Amino acid sequence: MEMKMQGLYRILLALTLMFGAIPLQAEMRVDVTEGTMQPMPIAVLPFSGNTAETNQMGQNIASVISNDLESSGLFKPIDSSAFIQSQPSQEQIRFADWRAINAQALLKGQVHQTSDGRMRVEFRLFDVYSERQLIGYAFTATSETWRRIAHKVADQVYQRLSGESGYFDTKIIYVSRVKTGKRRVERLAIMDQDGANHRILSDGRALVLTPRLSPNLDLVAYLNFLNRKPNIYLMKMSTQQNEILGHFPGMTYAPRFSPDGTKLIMSYALEGTSSLYLMDLASRQVNRLTQEDGVIDVSPCFSPDGSQIVFVSDRGGKPQIYVMGTSDLSPRQISQGEGKYFSPVWSPRGDLIVFVKQHHGIFYIGVMKTDGSDERMITQGYMVDSPTWSPNGRVIMFTREDRSGQAKLHTIDITGYNERVVPTPHEAITAAWSPLIP
Fold first, then answer.
1. 134 closest CA partner among 71, 90, 73
2. Which GO terms describe its cellular component (predicted)?
């Protein structure tokens, strides 16, 4: 029993470190295959405006688009100082001038204030070599939402040129950590995926961990250690009101929503056994999913279609990754490598599982196919933990902590290319990436 509790403690410790389009049929694509990550040079012109205000807004929109595209690692926005032509109309584009600076794609747009006080943002994307328009869109919205419009434009450009859906108009919820002397204050925080529009959601009176957004972005499930008792809470995003999901007999942790948002899967531990449980959020009825006493089952996560669950279990002697169907509930081990596995998360597109591995004192972020084959490590460090997927299944965000205890969020492409720090005001741990915002 003592050995089981020690194993449970080690797993828990690792968990805590944790809007018409007119597309033309052109064949230009950025190569997104593994091992050939050559960013596509793209010229993003400042969007022009019909007033000083809209002109400035157009420049801001273009800047956000450029930053989004560059951060993906798939595109290389060209510095505006290299532009030969500045603000051409569609009929006046001198494509030879853009080819001369090696631009393969050209994005231009306009921002106009409408009669009702809103703004209309139009953009066109061109293939410089075929001299054809690839897509054209228009968005009408309030001026306060200009950053979202910029992210939406970047998503459209990304999708047209890469063939994959974008992920820029999304949110990140995470735990913000501030150290005051020897005291740490952890608070829930939410921001845009690029670090903008940052908001604190909790008061810091209790330790909070592993926040997860519901599929419709209306709820957050998280672990709260109020009065040193770990319980799962729900926060309604529109009001920031919290409610406890119930008092469980042992330690509860690692909540995640089902793909339809109607259920919550979690673990709780009691007397050396940690099992998986499923709660219906409407009835609050709880069902035990794994039945084997004396083992530790943790970190459950649904497949995108809700038909399977991936989790970690020590039923084979050490923490390994298991998968079971939601109908038969028969676990089967899929991980086969050396070391200990933690925190598996199913890709939104269903093809991969990301995980944390500890081996010979080093932590790794890795991916494998859903049958456990083709396991590969994509980054490593003193402490890397809490992976979460972008909604297109292309990018992984995770926590990286150095030997001094400083923790930051990082992103990396599934090929192991283009690792970047995510800007946050303070230290950041245990993030979760939202779906695309409706």
1. 90
2. periplasmic space
